[in-house]
Amino acid sequence: MTPLPTIAILGTGTMGAPMARNLVRAGFGVRVWNRTLAKAAALAADGAQPAYTPADAAADADVLITMLADGAAVQQVTAGPTGALSVLRPGATWIQMSTIGVEWTDRLGEVADCYGVTFVDAPVSGSAGPAARGELEILAAGAEPVRETVGPIFDVLGRRTVWLVRRGDGSRLKLALNNWLAVLVEGMAETLTFVEALGVDPHIVLDSVAGGPLASEYALAKGAAMLDGDYVPGFPLRHAVKDAELAVHAANQRGLHLSLTKALLPRWREAVANHHGGDDVASAVTAGTAVTVT
User: Fold this and answer.
1) 228: part of which helix (H) or strand (E)?
2) How many domains, the chain?
3) Which of 110, 172, 173, 285 could be disulfide-bonded to 226 (CB atoms 3.0-4.6 Å)?
4) How far is CA 72 from CA 79, 98, 105, in A?
5) Are residues 215 and 157 both part of a single domain?
């Protein structure tokens, strides 16, 4: 039986920690690093091996996974003479799962090439709950030969993998999906605020939509969270703002204008400025006039 690869995970926050736990449970050897060392150390109880530096985590690993906040953070821990790529063995695989946009994906893919490392662009669709349950949707772009290597890993982390051929297309698709997410969340926030201003109980909106042609399971879940004031982070608002900004930037470069996404950004930035950046994206409802929570 072929031994399972050793995996180094850089970034054990909201998403990286449950992913690491699932891989350990599946029998993989897992080393973990996080900028806040206590977050990585906490995973020792689950069987992961904490590391003090990115290079310590990556040394002699077969697969490197990055799940960090943005492209600059990924570059900082992987590139350069003390980065993770400097100790990763030639021929190893780097699965880049952070949402970092197209430009950073292209740039980091070129860095991987310089180190002789196989680069897989594989951001995920899903939040903390699906990550814990191993039900993420993985948007992967990589050459055919690498799919056999990463397939068992993706089977543990996700409910399905959408494979694309061109490097960077995983990140392109992720921007489109998160743009849709942003529009859904803002639409729900504005609708609940609007119906309350009309003097109607906003809970009735959710009841009216559920099960009908306008229903979106995600939007209804966020609507319920808005009404309950439940902002436990599944997808932190500050990350949603970053992703919306990436989408607007990518569209602008192609001569397109994402009018809805561009319009919601000032409101979402307001919510972040009001100390909701670490809260769930549902906290976008707090910007301006918000619905009454119960």
Assistant:
1) helix 217-228
2) 2
3) 285
4) 10, 11, 11
5) no
